[in-house]
Write a structure and sequence with these properties.
Length: 202
């Protein structure tokens, strides 16, 4: 969108990174290989059959212990399937890592959301997810869907409280700021707008 907004300079970004003012949200760790193996080997079913297998190997004929192969095969199939699912999910996580359009040095560029710093200006377009909190700088016919935002009810109560406080003080600018706030994880439906980041991290 045509804009005179310059955004942060490279030096300002470096200063914020040095101060730790980066949108560094820790990734949700996937299950480790060790955890998958333990979950499939150390089960009540395996413990029961394993105990019976040991008893039969000690006191009974060896042919009665053939069910031990079923025990091993069952654990092996479970481990193989979970490891395959883990590889698929880890690959999808890399492919679908969210990107954001930000304005820096007067130019719009795409960066991973983990590289957004405080006071960055985001350029949002229809269908974009709002990945950080901020206030709208410029917009035309902006529509935002925050129906899927966690704790949407709490956010709404907070928004109403801010509006009420601003209205009591008859501060028109404060009322407009409260109306213009956008919450992270909301989905923009229409128009294009610029949003300065006022909160980063989890």
């Amino acid at each position: 969108m045509p804009t005179a907004i310059e955004g942060l300079t490279r030096q300002e970004v470096a200063e914020r990174i040095a101060r730790g003012q980066v949108n560094d949200v820790p990734a949700v760790p996937s299950r480790t290989v060790g955890h998958i193996v333990r979950a499939n080997v150390f089960t009540r079913f395996n413990a029961l059959l394993g105990s019976l297998l040991v008893v039969i190997l000690i006191v009974g004929p060896i042919q009665d212990a053939l069910f031990g192969f079923v025990l091993i095969a069952n654990a092996g199939v479970g481990i193989f399937q979970e490891l395959r699912a883990k590889r698929t999910l880890d690959g999808l996580a890399v492919l679908t890592s969210p990107q954001a359009r930000i304005v820096r040095d007067g130019e719009v560029r795409e960066v991973p959301v983990t590289e957004i710093v405080l006071d960055d200006v985001l350029e949002l377009q229809p269908g974009d997810q709002i990945v950080v909190d901020g206030e709208v700088l410029e917009a035309a016919a902006l529509e935002v869907d925050d129906a899927d935002v966690k704790r949407a009810g709490e956010a709404l109560v907070t928004r109403i409280g801010r509006l009420a406080d601003a209205a009591r003080g008859t501060d028109r600018a404060a009322v407009q700021r409260a109306l213009d706030e956008v919450e992270s994880a909301a989905r923009q439906l229409a128009a294009t707008c610029d949003v300065p980041v006022d909160q980063v991290g989890g």
